[in-house]
Amino acid sequence: MTINDTQDQIIEEFSIFDDWMDKYALLIDLGNSLEPLDEKYKTENNLIEGCQSRVWLQAEYADGIVTFRGESDAVIVKGIVSLLIQVLSGHTPREILDTDLYFIDRIGLKEHLSPTRSNGLVAMVKQMRLYALAFQAKEQG
Fold first, then answer.
1. 12-24 pLDDT, tens per residue?
2. Which entry of 27, 34, 48, 51 is annotated as an active-site residue?
3. CA-to-CA distance for 4 and 8, rounded, in angstroms?
4. Taking Cα atoms as reference points, which of 82, 33, 85, 87 lies closest to residue 59?
């Protein structure tokens, strides 16, 4: 499945709900279904700067594919981490770098987050792109 297929699927999933309380509940469910991050990855290096809550993001690169894992100590943020992983994990660095993450605006996420959470979302996306950039540079090395 392409990144855009996944984004379209998320947009469809969120469009079922009109009320943002229901959308928050869906985000929390997504966060709760996120596989816990192994304690060995909860390091200072994997902590995202710019997030109000604690967010860890870990990336692995094998066979041309980037795999992300993450976790947060805040339930809604954990849901956001889950969405980003769902969209970007399992793709090549080039696909990750070239993608427009339109689902964030389409589901209304940015406008319904507090400014600090919104900054955190931007910081998470930036970190994921930095990992992709580093893996791509290593590949071309």
1. 999 999 999 999 9
2. 51
3. 6
4. 85
